[in-house]
Task: inverse folding
């Protein structure tokens, strides 16, 4: 009724409807789906309390991105040290902290940069070209989603780009190079990330953008860098990002190559990292790796430093060729599409100690499996509540799965 009165009054007084679009959003509900009410103070969440704990931007980002369009948002409140806590809002707060740390890194790189002879002739590295291509993809997708009022989807898309592509990958890769193009791309990426996030997190992004603008304005290399437009007094006055005109005019094949080649490098690094974690390789130990790379040989050879740094591989023992046979010694083989990685087991673990550890773990699992099977085949299965029986079955299934995995590892050793 309120909207109807607003429309009628607008038509009567101005001859125009007061608005043409109505955005309907969901309700904030308790974890069990009930509406919040003052009669249930233990389940009531005061947004001012959440702002005091997590900050305005964290709460705002959570509320925009937490649910599907038009769907209700359930908040699971936990009492910790006498205060209400919401784990997912903590995630948004951690994201804000991530932005601060990323901005601090970029500002440090910009302040320390000194132009080098020949910088102007250097082209974009694979990482530079990739993050610019990804940025332009995200801009196009985000604008499409925003125009379609899918704000939650747009926020999640930008979150994945900012945390995953920029912070987790590009910032780490940028540590391996100090060219002018990399400094320009760091500034470009930070500016784009903050502009994309500004409608969702206006306070944090405004503060960081002002720091970025001030740092760029005072760097001694400012005149040698191709920079985004920092002429606006505030980020809130700047236009929302559009596809970068300079980069959008770059060679289409080069952009396509960057989007094809960088994921292949990431797959190799990610797979080696996972293998290291699985075999509990100490972080400070460098391992050997043999990559049978086919048509990706040139790309992976060009990215040797990145693979060595991010996957903790000994570059002196990193072999990349079109086709490499598996080594004679036992190894872990990772099939990654066209690329096959062989990791010699002797470099991953102390084989004798690993066999002993796995055998001990296997013996414990066998005892647990025997106990569970005895319970499920005895009086317990006939007398215990259904929930306990189901829990025991799940415990047995998990133990059987672990036994198969450990047996397979032992066979490889």
Result:
């Amino acid at each position: 009724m309120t909207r109807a009165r607003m429309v009628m009054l607008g038509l009567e007084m101005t001859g125009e409807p007061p608005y043409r679009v109505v955005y309907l959003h969901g309700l904030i509900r308790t974890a069990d789906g009930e509406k919040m009410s003052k009669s249930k103070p233990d389940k009531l969440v005061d947004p001012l309390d959440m702002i005091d704990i997590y900050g305005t931007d964290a709460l705002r980002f959570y509320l925009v991105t937490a649910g599907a369009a038009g769907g209700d948002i359930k908040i699971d409140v936990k009492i910790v040290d006498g205060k209400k806590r919401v784990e997912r809002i903590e995630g948004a707060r951690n994201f804000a902290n991530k932005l601060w740390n990323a901005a601090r890194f970029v500002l440090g790189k910009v302040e320390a940069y000194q132009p080098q002879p020949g910088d102007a002739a250097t082209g974009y590295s694979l990482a530079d070209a990739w993050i610019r291509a990804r940025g332009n993809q995200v801009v196009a997708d985000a604008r499409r989603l925003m125009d379609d009022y899918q704000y939650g989807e747009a926020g999640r898309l930008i979150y994945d780009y900012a945390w995953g592509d920029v912070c987790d990958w590009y910032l780490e890769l940028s540590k391996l190079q100090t060219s002018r193009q990399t400094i320009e791309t760091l500034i470009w990426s930070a500016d784009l990330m903050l502009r994309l996030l500004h409608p969702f997190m206006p306070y944090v992004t405004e503060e960081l953008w002002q720091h970025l603008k001030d740092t760029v304005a005072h760097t001694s290399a400012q005149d040698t860098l191709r920079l985004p437009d920092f002429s606006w007094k505030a980020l809130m006055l700047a236009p929302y990002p559009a596809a970068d005109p300079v980069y959008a005019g770059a060679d289409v094949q080069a952009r396509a190559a960057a989007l094809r080649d960088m994921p292949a490098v990431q797959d190799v690094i990610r797979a080696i990292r996972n293998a290291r974690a699985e075999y509990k390789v100490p972080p400070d130990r460098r391992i050997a790796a043999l990559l049978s790379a086919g048509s990706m040989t040139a790309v992976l050879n060009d990215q040797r430093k990145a693979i060595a740094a991010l996957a903790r591989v000994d570059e002196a023992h990193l072999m990349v060729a079109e086709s490499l046979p598996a080594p004679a010694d036992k190894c872990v083989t990772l099939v990654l599409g066209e690329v096959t990685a062989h990791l010699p087991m002797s470099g991953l673990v102390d084989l004798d100690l690993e066999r002993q550890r796995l055998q001990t773990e296997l013996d414990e699992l066998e005892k647990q499996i025997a106990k569970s099977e005895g319970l499920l085949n005895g009086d317990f299965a006939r007398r215990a509540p259904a929930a306990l029986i189901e829990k025991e079955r799940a415990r047995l299934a998990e133990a059987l799965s672990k036994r198969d995995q450990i047996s397979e590892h032992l066979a490889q050793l």
